[in-house]
Structure formats: C-alpha cells, structure tokens
Design brief:
The protein is α+β, with helices and mostly antiparallel strands. The chain is built from 26 helices and 28 strands.
C-alpha cells in the first residue's frame, strides 16, 4: 500500500502533493489516537476481566506495548512504611528481575527512586541523565540504556509505585507525547490496581481464615477422636468379662487410630524370677518365625524395654539417642532399622510391672511428647486391666473355697434368721412395753388415749378417765435400799395395779416411778374414784422388799374426758398437774383436775420466767447471818442466804421461789450468783474494817457436786473477786453424799486442795449414815435447828445433840448449832462444847448495808 501511495504522490502536482502529505499525517494521527483509545479501553476493562494482579500487570504491558515501544517494561511498588521496593512485574532485555522486596536504600540514586522522591514523570534522555548525574540526583545503576521513561503511580497524593519503559537502541526514542501517554495510562491503572489489590488481600484473608477454620475443624475432629478413643479404652478397662488377650488387641487397634502403632508390644516383668515376658505383640516387617524368636521370654538385660522398667518413666528415643545410650554402656546396640522408639511403664501400686512400647522403622514416622502423653494414659488403663484380671483369678480361686463354706454357712444363716425373727418380735414388744415391768410404755398409752379421744368425738356417750400415779417415797427406797430393791418394788406395784383394774382398762409405766391408767366405758365418775381409792389403799400398805417392810404411798391425779381435749399429750399434762396437786395437799391421796390447778401451773410457769429474768438482771442478793463463837459471842463469819428483790414482784421470800428454782435447776445459777456477790462483799469488809479473819459460808444445791467442773467454776469466781480461798466455806446437805459419790468425792477433794472448807448442813435430819463422815473430807457439822429449838426442854434432843458433838470432836470436826432462839439454848450448847452457833438470839439475816453498819 505504501508503494501505491508513493506512485500516487509522484503523479500529483506540487499543490496536490502538499495536500496529500497533510492528509497522510492526519491519517497517521488518527490511527495513533485510535490505538490509544483502544489501549485505554482495554486498560479500563482489565480490573474486571483479570483474575489476579499478575495477569493484570501482563495485560497492562500488552496494552502499553500496543501504543508505544515497550519491550523493556516494569512496574515497581513502593512501601513507604517499611521503605522497600518490590518489582511486581519486570520484562527487560538486559537486566534480571530483582528478587522479592528490596530495601529502598539499595536502589537509592536510581531513576526509579528519583521519580518516587519527586512524584513527577521523567523522560530521561542521555542529555537529561548527564544533567541529573552532574546534580548528584541519580547515579549509574544497572545496564545503561538510551531513553528511560517513568511515571509515578499516585494514590491519595502519595506515590505507591513507578511504571517505566526504556530502550537500549537508537532506533527507539521516546518523545513528550509518549510521556504524556504513559502518565495518562498510569493514572488509569492505579484505581484498577487498588481494586485488584483489595480483592487479592480479601481473597488472602478469606483463604487464611478458611485455612484456620479447616485447621480448627481438623484439631476438633482429632480431639473428638482422641476423647472417644480414651473413653473406649476406659470402657474396656471396666469390662472384666473381656479376655485379657482380646483386651490387648482392642487397645492396640484404638491406639493405632491415634498413633502409628504398627509395631506394638506389651511386656510384663516378673521381679522374683527376673524374667521379661511379652504378653502381646504385633510386628509388621518380619516373618512369623523371626517375630516369635524376637518376643520370646528373656532374662532382664540391657534392652530398651528394661530401661523403661528400671527408670519407671516414659522413654522416647530416636536412632541417635539409642546409639548414645549404647555408647554409654546402658543398652544393647540398636538394630539400625528402628527410627523412633517410645516406651511407657506399666505401674501398679507404685511398682513397675512391665512396659508398653511402639516403634517406627520409617524415617517419616517419628514419635513426639504428645504421643508419649497419650501412650502413658493408655498404660494406666492397661495396668488397671492387668490388676483386675489378677484379682479376678484370685476371686475365682477363692470362689471355690467360698462355695464350700456356703453350705455350712447356709445352715447357720437359717438358724440366725430364726433367731432374728424372734429378736424382731422381741424388739416390737420392747418398743411398745416397759422393759422392767412388762407394762405398755408411754408411746402405746398415748396411742390408746388418742383413740379414746377420737371415740369420744364420734360417740359423746363414750366416757373415760386418766389416772396419773407418782410414788411418794420411791426415792427413799432407792437411796436407802438400792436400785435393785427399787426395781423389785416397781414390778410388784405393776402386778398389783394390773389386778385392780378391769380387763378393758390399760395400766402403763411412763418411766421412773410414774404410772398411768386409762379407764374406759365409764358409766359414772364414781367408777374412776373407786379405782383411785383402791390404789391409794393398796399402796399405803407395806411391801416386803429384801425381807424389809417398805411403806411407799402414792399421789394420784384424776382427769375425765372433755370436749376441749384434742390431744393425748394435753390430757396427760393436766392429769400430771392434778397429781402434783395431790402431792401438795399432803400425798397419799387423789385429786381430780380442775381449771384452778391449771392456773397454778400457769403461775408456776410465770414464776419460772421471772426467775430466769431475775438471774439475767442479777436481782438475787445475799443476806448475811453472823456465825458466832459461843465461848465469847464473837463474830467469826457469815452464812450467805439468797434473797430476791424483784422489780416486778417486790421482795420475794425464799419459800416462794426456792422450791421451783430447785425443780427447774435454776437454783444452780442462783447459787453461783450469790456466791460471787458474797465473796465480793466479804472482800470489801476485809479492806474496809481490816477484818481478814472473817469468812463467808455459801449453800450449794446438791447437783453442783455432780458436775466435774465445780472446782474450776468456784476457782474462777474467787480469782475474779480476788478473795483467798481460805475465807470461803461451802455448805452441802446429806443428799449430795448419797448420789454419784465418786464425782462428789473428787469435787470435795479439789475444793479442800484449794483451801475451801466443807460444811455438812442440817445434820441429823437426813439419812444420818455415819459411813460418809469417814469417807468424805468434811470440816464442820451444822446441827439442824429442829434439834436445837428449845433444846433445854427436851432431854432426848439434848442426848442427840451431845452425841453429834462428841462424834464431830472424835472426827476432828467443828460444830455449828443452827436456829438458836434464846439464852437457855445458847448456854446449853456451850456447856455441851458446841463451838459455834447462829440464830435469831444472836443476829437475824441482814442485807449488806445493815451488816456494814453493825461491823462499823
């Protein structure tokens, strides 16, 4: 075509020739412009058409090569943060592609770095290169070319890289329009590059997360498999019915799912025979004959299995470790084919009984610490299984012996069953009957009484009564004749009561000396009165116990049914109240319950509550009655007597609160309260009147002496007060000496050791047993007022008093006469050599302030 145009031009005139040349130039410009627009359109489609940046860079190169000479072309990316350059695309006739990321400083002075630093396009002709070199802005680097054309790739005002072309031939020179074209192209490809980079980063992030998730899934699957496998091993261990060889094989299969266990064996060590036996093995690379020889029982030697047993710890070895152990002389020489060896001990009751081993003959199968941990866990179950099988064998042998004994034991058991049935019947009877008398007990009586109440609710014409009996002098029998005599008496009374009542009536024993009778189907109250009267008369007569006549007597409370009663316990309570009322009325009689008795009980409850409150408020105070020496009427000490100054009740006399206090045991607290206040007052008198010769004597209820802590409690009080123990006297009655005599003696000895003197109060009125005067450490006998009152008028009283004084003198005890009311009695006691006395003739009991005035 060019030849045709040339011929055509030669045939034209000068004017036509110029016009034709101009047309050809316009045609060439149009073609170049069309090529550029085609290239730009191609570049614009690349971001959507290209799957990755590598393809994109290659397509960019082809597009630019279509509009200019671009045989030598590269794109380099600049990382400002890390100061690195990366040639992401590079095609060059002379130079090789720089590998990876290059430090910016390594290429500093290059035309690429110059474009980055200036952020401007550069057309570097030889002339421009010399000029820049002379200015020190660039330096020779790489193969020297003819023209170099580079443009910055800008993003957000920052240089992100450079796109460049260069030529090594004079036939290929770049012009300013090439620079403009490359600059314009660079602006278009930046946004496409960023989109592809974002897409590629997103894809990498997705791939990384996918890889991470897949790894987690694989780890979870592996963990689940491990957990399931360990659970299966635990189940196998607990199943004693599985044969031991089958157990080993199943364990091997489970371990093989988690670890490469193609070569696996279990060895047992007999310490007594020093023998190693291979109870299970599986080997892959040798013939059956070789395997059998390899795992024959052998004497304990220097094998790797023996090393595990010796150490009692896990042993993990590679070939180098095995060679090192052999060199040290600890083991035999390895066979060379074993690449990894792992053995764990089988431990039973802290003793190594064998080992479990896996080994690998492949270089790519090496065991790790994680494998060792897993195999160690499995070994524990194998040890347990071996132990259980040994126990099972022992049980089998003992079972035979046991079966031989079963027949003999069966006969014995049959006899025991018969005896047990008899015992159960006896227990049922015992649970419902009193063990001493054979009468129904409280539980049975309450059931019968509740049944009677229910019958009365259904049939009001059904009448019944409850008799509550308490023996009046039963304690005297126990204390004087002993508990055995008391038991005999209770049995006789139970028999007599059963004969007095009708067959349909019920006699029961509640406990101690208390009996109750349920009389049913009464026609009139007189029937109940008749029964009560017969019982009263029966028990007023003497009983012969241990060949001695015993007079006992009884107090009976009678209670008839009433619609207000819904509970057997309430009826029993009111019958008990009536019984106590009979005692208060003189004993040896019966009383019928009425509401006034209940009122009395309520009053007693209120009094008890007030006494408890008074103890809390410390309302109880001591009154002091002087004790004088009869020879000169000089005061030597005081007896402290409890008095109650109540905020609610005013002054309460002892007879109004002492009996209830003793019954409820509140007297124990009152005694200690009086004791401490008396000691404190005496201490004050010692200081105030310089009379440290005075002492105070305090009464203690008998049950104080039954407590093992009595001496400690008194020691605490006198220490708190600061009183010397020799200034304290303790008074007790004869009753305390008759019960729990051992603990009473211990307490008295402890008090004596402290320096406290012991006084026996009301001597002559109690049981008057002389034996305890020798046994117990008593310092003083107090002669009861009943002998002393007007003693000058009664010769027999004088004889008793003289006997007591002479007895005390012989036993080196002092005597105190109580209740001296006149001069004649005082003089008579002085003549009888009674040392001390007290009573209204000398002084009445006085509160502390009055006694202080007198001492002053």
């Amino acid at each position: 075509m060019t030849k045709d145009i040339t011929n055509y031009m030669n045939s034209l005139s000068k004017e036509d020739e110029d016009l034709a040349k101009e047309s050809i130039l316009l045609l060439n410009k149009y073609r170049k412009l069309e090529e550029r627009y085609t290239a730009l359109f191609t570049l614009n489609q690349l971001s959507n058409d290209c799957a990755n940046l590598n393809t994109f860079y290659r397509q960019v190169h082809h597009a630019i090569a279509s509009i200019m000479d671009a045989k030598n072309f590269y794109i380099v990316l600049y990382d400002q943060v890390f100061a690195t350059l990366e040639f992401v695309y590079h095609v060059d006739e002379k130079d090789n592609t720089p590998p990876g990321c290059v430090d910016y400083d390594e290429l500093k002075g290059s035309m690429t770095c110059h474009v980055i630093e200036t952020s401007k396009p550069l057309l570097a002709t030889p002339k421009v290169v010399k000029q820049l070199q002379s200015q020190g802005k660039i330096k020779d680097m790489g193969t020297i070319g003819i023209d170099w054309l580079g443009v910055p790739l800008m993003s957000g005002g920052m240089v992100m890289g450079v796109m460049a072309v260069q030529s090594y031939s004079d036939s290929t020179r770049y012009q300013e329009n090439d620079l403009d074209m490359l600059t314009f192209t660079g602006q278009h490809i930046v946004s496409a590059m960023e989109r592809l980079q974002d897409r590629e980063r997103l894809q990498k992030a997705v791939d990384a997360r996918t890889k991470e998730l897949m790894s987690q899934i694989r780890e979870r699957e592996k963990s689940e498999l491990l957990q399931e496998s360990l659970f299966r091993i635990s189940e196998l261990t607990n199943d004693s019915t599985i044969d031991i060889d089958k157990f080993y094989d199943m364990v091997h299969n489970i371990v093989g799912q988690l670890i490469n266990a193609e070569n696996f064996y279990i060895a047992k060590y007999n310490k007594n025979k020093d023998l190693l036996s291979f109870v299970y093995y599986s080997e892959q690379d040798e013939g059956s004959d070789d395997i059998s020889r390899k795992f024959e029982p052998r004497k304990f030697s220097k094998g790797y299995t023996e090393l595990v047993i010796q150490k009692g710890k896990t042993v993990l070895l590679n070939l180098d470790d095995m060679l090192a152990l052999n060199k040290e002389g600890k083991t035999i020489k390895p066979d060379g084919k074993t690449k990894s060896w792992l053995g764990v001990p089988l431990i039973q009751s802290n003793e190594v009984i064998g080992a479990m081993v896996i080994q690998s003959y492949q270089s790519n199968v090496l065991y790790s610490e994680q494998d060792a941990e897993l195999l160690n866990f499995v070994s524990q179950h194998v040890s347990t299984a071996i132990k259980r099988r040994e126990l099972a064998e022992f049980e089998r042998k003992t079972q035979e012996l046991l079966e031989q004994q079963v027949k003999l034991r069966t006969a014995e058991l049959e006899e025991e069953i018969k005896q047990r049935e008899q015992m159960e019947q006896q227990l049922k009877y015992t649970a419902s009957h009193d063990s001493l008398t054979g009468l129904p007990n409280r539980t049975v009586f309450l059931d019968l009484l509740n049944h009677a109440i229910a019958c009365n609710k259904r049939r009001p014409e059904f009448q019944f009564a409850v008799l509550f009996l308490d023996l009046d002098r039963f304690k005297v029998v126990n204390d004087s004749l002993g508990h055995h005599a008391g038991d005999i008496l209770l049995k006789k009374i139970a028999n007599e009561l059963s004969t007095i009542v009708r067959n349909k009536d019920t006699v029961a024993r509640l406990g101690g000396d208390e009996f109750v009778i349920l009389i049913e189907d009464l026609d009139t109250p007189k029937e109940a009165y008749d029964v009560a009267q017969r019982i009263t008369e029966l028990l007023s007569a003497p009983f012969i116990i241990l060949e001695q006549p015993v007079f006992i007597g009884t107090s009976i409370g009678v209670l008839f049914n009433d619609t207000r009663y819904d509970s057997a316990e309430i009826m029993l309570r009111d019958a008990d109240t009536a019984m106590y009322h009979a005692k208060d009325m003189g004993k040896g009689r019966y009383e019928v319950f009425d509401s006034s008795m209940h009122k009395k009980v309520q009053n007693a409850l209120l009094l008890e509550a007030d006494i408890r409150e008074a103890i809390q408020q410390k309302e109880f105070v001591p009154f002091f009655q002087p004790i004088v020496r009869l020879s000169d009427n000089e005061i030597v000490g005081f007896e402290a007597l409890a008095r109650w100054k109540s905020e609610k009740r005013g002054f309460v006399y002892p007879n109004d609160f002492i009996p209830l206090a003793e019954e409820t045991k509140l007297v124990l607290d009152i005694d200690f309260l009086i004791l401490e206040k008396s000691c404190r007052q005496l201490k004050n008198w010692h200081v105030e009147f310089n009379r440290d010769d005075l002492y105070v004597s305090c009464n203690l209820y008998c049950e104080h002496f039954f407590s093992p802590n009595l001496s400690k409690d008194i020691a605490t009080i006198i220490k708190r007060v600061g009183l010397n123990a020799r200034h304290l006297r303790i008074e007790l009655t004869e009753r305390a000496l008759l019960e729990n005599s051992d603990i009473v003696l211990e307490n008295m000895m402890a008090l004596k050791k402290m320096g406290v003197k012991i006084l026996l109060d009301d001597f002559g009125t109690g049981y008057s047993s002389l034996s305890y005067l020798h046994r117990f450490p008593i310092d003083v006998l107090k002669i009861d007022r009943s002998f002393i009152n007007n003693v000058h008028e009664y010769n027999n009283h004088q004889a008793i008093i003289k006997t007591i004084i002479d007895l005390a003198t012989n036993l080196q005890m002092a005597t105190v006469g109580e209740g001296i009311e006149n001069l004649a009695d005082a003089e008579l006691l002085t003549q009888m050599d009674c040392i001390y006395g007290q009573g209204y003739y000398f002084y009445k009991p006085m509160p502390p302030h009055e006694m202080s005035e007198y001492l002053a």
